[in-house]
Amino acid sequence: MSTYVVGDVHGCYLTLKTLVEEKIGLSKSDRLYLLGDYIDRGPMSYETVEYLINLIDNGFSIFPLRGNHEQMLLDSLNDLYSFKLWMLNAGDVTQMSYKSALGEKFSFPNGLPLTHLKFYNSLPLYQEISNLYVLVHGSLNYSASNPFTDTESILWKRPDPIPEHFIPNKVILYGHTPTPISEIQQIVENPKSRLIPMDAGCVYTSPGLGNLAALELETMKLHWVKRIEEGFRR
Questions:
Q1: How far apart are CA 212 and CA 13, in angstroms?
Q2: How is domain 3-226 classified at the architecture level of CATH?
Q3: Which DSSP string do the residues of the chain spell out, in sequence order?
């Protein structure tokens, strides 16, 4: 049994499928954790969510977290200001993906499949693994009396160095902050802090980005594939 942690997907369904099925060869005895942001920017948000739902329904141990982009979608269900904010963050690309999959008559929010709405609402803010790792999308508020209730920081914050006294002996794996794959590899091989970035910037074209990464926790081996999709929103 292996445990994998995957960074931000952002609608790169073909890349995710290649990573899961070909690169790491996920089996039903493995566990796969994902750090949020399955939608927006990339062209295949609908397919990405549908793929994760189908893996879960078919008996794979999939544990997806909530990212700030899923939260923006949920906030947009009943609030016009939140909807406008989501559109400014490539929510329109997600709507185009749903229209392409479900037909031009698709409308948000009433046209969202109930299985997808249930998926978005079910996403937890964080996960703990083996009392060794804490998984979040953004970061944690180190000064909060209970950092696991600070939703804004968990979804949106960029990480600062972890104080020595904060959740000692635990490592935080996070997404949200695009990081060159060479830098992620260096951190994994030579850890100098208790922070491991996992967003390899799948939808971006800056040097070192444009990858989707998975960290195998038992061996600390980093697996990654280059983005396959075109037609993405940077």
A1: 11
A2: 4-Layer Sandwich (3.60)
A3: --EEEE---TT-HHHHHHIIIIIS---TTSEEEE-S--SSSSS-HHHHHHHHHHHHHTT-EEEEPP-HHHHHHHHTTS-HHHHHHHHHTTHHHHHHHHHHHH-TT--TTTTS-HHHHHHHHH--SEEEETTTEEEESS---TTSSSGGG-HHHHHHPPP-PPPTTSSTT-EEEE-SS---HHHHHHHHHS--SSEEE----TT--STT-SEEEEEETTTTEEEEEE----S---
What is the spatial distance between Cα 80 and Cα 75, in angstroms, rounded to a whole number? Answer: 9
Beta strand 195-197 with 171-174: parallel, antiparallel or unpaired? Answer: parallel
Residue 50 identity (one-letter amino acid): E
The answer, as to whether pTM is greater than 0.85, is yes
Q: What is the pLDDT of residues 18-44, one digit of tens each?
A: 999 999 999 999 999 999 999 999 999
Is residue 72 a contact partner of residue 104, using CB atoms and an 8 Å limit?
Answer: no
Q: Per residue in 151-199, pLDDT tens?
A: 999 999 999 999 999 999 999 999 999 999 999 999 999 888 899 999 9
Locus of tokens 């922070």: 195
Q: Where are the domains of the chain?
A: 3-226
Tokens 């790169």, located at residue = 12
Structure tokens at 158: 């960029």
